[in-house]
Specification:
Chain A is mostly helical. Chain A is built from ten helices and no strands. In chain A, helix 1 crosses helix 3 and helix 5 packs antiparallel against helix 7. Chain B binds a DNA duplex (30 and 30 nucleotides) through loops.
Chain lengths: 241, 241
Amino acid sequence: MPVDPKVPGSVWTRPGRPQREQLTREQIVAATIELLDAEGVGELSMRKLGTRLDAAATSLYRHVANKDELMELVVDDIYGELEIPVAGGPADWRAAATRAASDLRAMALRHPWIAPELGQAGLTHVGPNTMRVSSELLALFEAAGFPAQEKDRAMGTLMAYVIGIATSEAAYLSLIARSGRTESEWVADQRPRFDEASQEHPRLREGGSAQQDVDPKKIRDDDFAYGLDRILDGLAARLDA
Amino acid sequence: MPVDPKVPGSVWTRPGRPQREQLTREQIVAATIELLDAEGVGELSMRKLGTRLDAAATSLYRHVANKDELMELVVDDIYGELEIPVAGGPADWRAAATRAASDLRAMALRHPWIAPELGQAGLTHVGPNTMRVSSELLALFEAAGFPAQEKDRAMGTLMAYVIGIATSEAAYLSLIARSGRTESEWVADQRPRFDEASQEHPRLREGGSAQQDVDPKKIRDDDFAYGLDRILDGLAARLDA
DNA sequence: GCAAGCAGCGTACGGTGTCCGCTAGTCTGT
DNA sequence: ACAGACTAGCGGACACCGTACGCTGCTTGC
């Protein structure tokens, strides 16, 4: 029993105030993040997003230029989750950097679809949160004692590492999520396939077989911490020189 | 004047040998790489690829399960370009690692569409070249003196850094390429926009303004080398301990 | 009470990946 | 030499995509 939209309904069904809350950019961004978290980047479409907001797909274009711009807004919004610690000075610089890097990784794993976007972002996205985070990170390296010409590079090194590792972790976790198994199950399932593929490269198997029954999440955490420590070692050495 | 395909043509136009070279997986992969290098990942479609091979889009599916699998094949093929140096021992380890990392970055900048794919790849892609490269890299860290449990992590650290930095470099270069300007022109064009956006974050401007007239390519090369050196410092320190 | 502006929408266009069933040529077994 | 099996390639179709365009009807300012 479809309702003819031409007939404007009674006063009761058609209140004086706009029947629907007006669409806002914030609302759209929030709904996009929900959708992305729930279903991943491959399942994001303007039509689906519209449905989730009880709006037509094309209505979104009143508030957002196109899908790419929407993604930019979304990335900046997620950056808003980040709080970069302030380093008091060279003494607690390292702790602050460790926390910042870990928080960034945690953010990327909370929203696995974001890692690839972060890689693309770099200098070209200039949203307020993105810039705040960059600026605060820069302040951190400044407090550590890096000279002006070097703090950018130091920050870039750390960011590249975190983004690089988070991208592959996120891709791997998304794959597992789509498979419907737990990470441990998945790892166990894939082992035969991987063993066969690496038959000619025994070196590839050494690392994995040792910790066959360790929680995979712990392995990833430790791997991340290992690399982070090495990088901070390298940066600290540079500071001392 | 359309030719009726039912009529089998004369002996001359219809040679005994198959009229067209048979499509092969290698051919498809090669054509895909050409197309990707020329137009970028956004312009790759099965139909375009088909046209380039004088074949229907759907014919490709005889040789390749789907587009994702095609991309896996393509990534592995590109890995074939890499030759990982062999480290004779702890003495020339560092030089070898530097060259391997630089080659990897150079590969990613030669094919700017590949960096994001590399991030996704990690453990889940098991093509022959991917595995060979991993194995050879592992051998390099083994020769350096890393114990069995650590060489994976050391390699992972280096790879994450290179992939992370190459991803943002590649995205940035693709953007510039699409704009039709040179890198220097583009940087100059964007400066006002960037300055305005960073008005509240003066720290963001310090680094850039110092080297306003340095070749941007050199800046990127130096930035990469800086981070690489710090990371190798950190790894080397671990070896000494 | 009217004009202007604008949010939301329906429709449509030109693309996408990929499934299906057909054709026609090649290879194999006799 | 011929029948039958196999297979590479294709045309058409389906469901979906991003988004340009022009209409409608509400809200606001005068």
